[in-house]
Here is the input.
Amino acid sequence: MRKMLSGRLLGCGLVVALLLASVAHPAVAQRVGASVHAGTLGTGARVTVSLTDRINVRGGIDFQPASIQVSALEAEGNEGGVDFNVELPTPAVTAVLDLFPGGSSFRVSAGVLYFAEPLALEGTPTEELAIGDHDYSPADVGTLRGSLGTTQIAPYLGIGWGDAVGPGLGFALDLGLAYHGEPDFRFEATGPASSNAQFRADLDAEADSINEDIPNFAAVYPILNLGFSFGL
Here is the structure.
């Protein structure tokens, strides 16, 4: 709870800073640009407004276009498992301030990302399943659902190339990290066994085992976006 609160406060502070910056130079003729891209946040678009000759503010949204399939948990006899459909965090809303220190297209960026939904997975076993130290039938388990919880507001730092408010078509590249806190994985089930204390303990033990395997660097979300911009 403390990590989530501190992340929200820091994120809100950065958002306020961006809003103040957007009105800090009313006398400067503002230029506007747009960009489309694809990367680790999915596919998305940004709108960019110049604040000064060397400072831009950007805002946009990204969506993960597809889910992925993974297999996890062991079936009876250590063969097979459960095929999970994994939904990546989506959508992600971005607010970023860009500084062009050398007057070229290279920029240093700071801002916040807002993840509307966490990573989630869902799967239904088709054979007896080993959960914790016990075996459970598909009828008892029902559908298994998991979620990888992080803070929704993530401070972002990065670098990039390209000025979206420049004239004509341009190149856009972003590299950076968003700190969304230490992930916490949890399982739940829809079957009748979900009301059984032993099953609940076994399911929690599986989730704890997954959490122990999550590396420390998973507290940051890597950002890589590549696309094109167009000055309006």
